[in-house]
Design goal:
The protein has 293 residues and is an alpha/beta fold. It has 9 helices and 9 strands. It has a 4-stranded mixed sheet with strand order 1-5-9-8. A 3-stranded antiparallel sheet has the order 4-6-7, with no helix packed on it. It has a two-stranded antiparallel sheet with strand order 2-3. The longest helix has 21 residues.
């Protein structure tokens, strides 16, 4: 069922965290992710077999077996809460099996063991709230994310797959895969990312002296500086005259690697050597991390 936090529950959630180490998966806290031995239900059997085969824990509820929350909103670097998430859970065993089939047939074949998260939370929908003092408001920018990543796991919204045709399933699998890969790349050390980011870092977030008059003129300047896409404004449209930031740069190149062939990239960007250089660097990085095309 849909789970809503009261303010009191949120304050308890904030108080329950003693520091960064508490959110680091370890042998000491994996028991909350494991299925109780006494549970022999169909769901329990599915979750056990998934973990044994793929090495990641499978969840259908963000309340773990020890009563703790999966807590995807924790900000590891700042030791504060930036977001709180609520979930609409998959309700029937058929829905849960369909979600697992989607994951195992369309997403996991592209993820080597190093890329697989500690746990997967498969749900119907995700709602995100942002912190404003002691209040939590529906996030205005991305209120209903499709994928959410954290140290403890990745939640995936799977309402899209119900009754979907092949084209929709394939497209959504690509979306999920890109989101998973982007989160893994962004989590890498700066030294690992440096060969990629150094190519265009001097442009990140920089405003041009003269704003191009058209989006077509703008994108050509992006290509020349080593970007494969334009800067996207908060309202969702192209922001001409501003270069992408680092997160956008990573997102756009992961999308390029996943959604295009090497021949397609070569043909489109043959006149832009920096784009080809960064495409190859990102391709190599994803391959090293365990991505399977």
């Amino acid at each position: 069922m849909h789970k809503l936090f009261s303010l009191f529950a949120l304050l308890l959630l904030l108080a329950s965290c003693g520091g960064e180490d508490a959110l680091q998966p370890s042998n000491a806290d994996t028991y909350g992710f494991e299925v109780p031995q006494s549970d022999n239900s169909a769901e329990a059997t599915l979750r056990r077999s998934f973990q044994e085969k793929y090495g990641s824990y499978l969840l259908f509820n963000d309340t773990l077996s020890n009563g703790e929350l999966l807590d995807l909103g924790y900000n590891i670097t700042a030791s504060t809460y930036a977001y709180v998430y609520t979930f609409d859970y998959l309700k029937t065993m058929d829905e849960k099996q369909q979600a697992v089939n989607f994951l195992t047939s369309r997403v996991l074949p592209h993820l080597g063991s190093k890329l697989r998260p500690f746990s997967f939370l498969l749900c119907n929908s995700i709602t995100r709230y942002t912190q404003d003092g002691t209040n939590y408001n529906l996030d205005w920018q991305t209120p209903y994310p499709q994928v959410v990543s954290s140290k403890r796991g990745i939640a995936i919204c799977l309402s899209t797959i119900e009754g979907a045709d092949e084209a929709t399933l394939a497209a959504y699998a690509q979306t999920v895969l890109v989101d998973l890969l982007v989160s893994q790349v962004q989590a890498q050390a700066a030294s690992t990312l440096e060969p990629f980011t150094s190519v265009s870092s001097r442009y990140y977030g920089v405003y041009m002296d003269n704003t191009p008059e058209t989006e077509e003129a703008n994108i050509l300047l992006m290509y020349a500086a080593g970007f494969c896409g334009a800067h996207i404004a908060m309202w969702g449209g192209v922001y001409t005259g501003v270069y992408p930031d680092q997160d956008e740069d990573i997102q756009q190149y992961v999308e390029l690697v996943v959604n295009s062939t090497a021949d397609e990239v070569q043909q489109k960007f043959s006149a832009y050597p920096l784009v080809l250089q960064k495409y190859q660097i990102m391709t190599n990085l994803l391959n090293q991390l365990g991505y399977v095309k």
